[in-house]
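This section describes the prediction task in plain terms. A model, or a person checking by hand, is given the sequence of a single protein chain and must write out its three-dimensional structure as a string of tokens. No templates, partner chains or ligands are provided. The sample shown here is typical of the held-out split.
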Amino acid sequence: TDILWQMMEEGRLVVQNEIRKRVIFHDPCTLNKLTNVWESPRKILTKIPGIQFTDEHHIDQWYYCCGNGVSTFKKVKPEIAFTIGQRRLRRALDLGGRTLALGCPHCWDHFTEVKTKSKLDVELINVIEMLAQAVGV
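The expected answer:
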């Protein structure tokens, strides 16, 4: 997301399409906590016209892991992983987001499973996929 944001700033990626969604970004543990990358996904989302973005502070999200734990935690403690995933999806819905933007394939896999089993009405989409739609790819 850092590289894509830089390309947007340089004018090499130009947003052409409006995307009408109420979006919350889920900070992946590996991106936010381990590499300290949290600004660029938010900047990308705020520059896409039509998005109503509700931001959650990246430090506050340390309480809202997806529950997968790069599949390791989920394998060891599947019930707890499921509960954690439900809590995060419900938090997004409680904040008014119908779309949870993601930046991690492990979160995507886990949230998809939790969403299906829980019958929660939340759309999951990768930030890069959303940006691709906005630039017309």
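For orientation: The beta strands are 21-25, 51-54, 99-102, 123-126.
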